[in-house]
Amino acid sequence: MSTDSAAKTGVPQPTLADIEEARDVLRGVAIETPMEESRWLSAIVGGPVFLKCENLQRTGSFKIRGAYLRMCRLSEEERAGGVVAASAGNHAQGVALAAQLLGIKATVFMPEGAPIPKEKATRGYGADVRFHGSSVDEALVQAKAFAADTGAVLIHPFDHVDIVTGQGTCGLEILEQCPDVKTVLVPTGGGGLVAGIATAVKAMRPDVRIVGIQAEGAAAYVRSLAEGHPVPLRSMSTMADGIAVGCPGEVPFHAIQEYVDEIVTVSEESLSRALLMLLERAKLVVEPAGAAAVAAMLDHPDRFETPAVAVLSGGNVDPLLLMRVIRHGMAAAGRYLFFRVRIPDLPGGLAKLLQELADVEANVLDVVHERTAPNLNLDEVEVAMQVETRSTAHADRVLARLRERGYRVSE
């Protein structure tokens, strides 16, 4: 552990030697995930971009790295008492698999409404799953109470030096797989992953820029870093459950304060668009949190020096959420167009409108007639349209074509 940092803050911190030792411990447990060059993203950014595919890690996210390292270091007495964790799903699966491999009983508290596939996978690894609260923070309160009542060891999702150390092994792989990297972008919730990666990377390459990416609706680090200590959010709202954490942990906070160069936030629309592009262009299934680094690059194509590495932190996405996110992402990318248009309430009026749309190659998905609105004339009807377009520019051409033909269009 870093004695200098611990002496200054009173909070234990990992060193490069700790992370290198952790890598030896994790051999045969966590896989060295692939790194793929992204030609389409490189073209957008104007330089080489690589995707570090932690979505292809065992359990579908990076979490097994820290969870196993933390749990393998428990004493026999601690192992006998079992472990408890709180998670929206990724840490839950990491803890459950680590417990299975080590022969430890695991209890996991998940917030109500946690993704069903994550719950089922956690149970599949043998953990006892219980639900509490509406967020990871509320589930964590219950997990701590369970630990106090039963003697089970709490395996915190991010606020422990072993957790940060384990996640840091990903940073070692990044430097080996992309030796000339200039920027590393990392999805950030509680901060364990970015803290670990930053500690490893800065120790070997202090010139590399480390950027943490948070969802706008759950950006606890922005205010916390500004005030110099962890500050809890009053509320959160994001579909990126993997990085929806209301308060930074003490251990990762101090590492991030020392080693992370910048925190960038991304919108729900950007997350949706990034997820869709990863699915379409990279053929990779990534959850919203896992797409955060790519979302930041799409939002700011000139901001990050290349070669750049975007960490895809997880791929555990509920199929129902995936369907909604794909639709949202297509709308954000201009692939869905919603508008209202007034047409004559006469035979052939709708057919003429549909022909105009066909001529401009817009695919009609939905049509709803409205005849009873008080602002409509007696001889007209308003039609709500949903059409599929190829891009924002194509959508603009569709609307322009209709207006040229004399239609009254509102978006």
From TrEMBL:
Leader sequence segment: none
Molecular functions per Gene Ontology: threonine deaminase activity
Annotated ACT domain residues: 338-411
PROSITE patterns tied to this protein: ACT (PS51671), DEHYDRATASE_SER_THR (PS00165)
Keyword Lyase: yes
Top EC category: lyase
SUPFAM superfamilies, sorted: Tryptophan synthase beta subunit-like PLP-dependent enzymes (SSF53686)
CDD domains linked to this entry: ACT_ThrD-II-like, Thr-dehyd
Subunit text: In the native structure, TdcB is in a dimeric form, whereas in the TdcB-AMP complex, it exists in a tetrameric form (dimer of dimers).
Family stated for the protein in its record: Belongs to the serine/threonine dehydratase family.
Name of this chain's protein: L-threonine dehydratase catabolic TdcB
Organism: Nocardioides jiangsuensis
Lineage: Bacteria, Bacillati, Actinomycetota, Actinomycetes, Propionibacteriales
Gene: ilvA
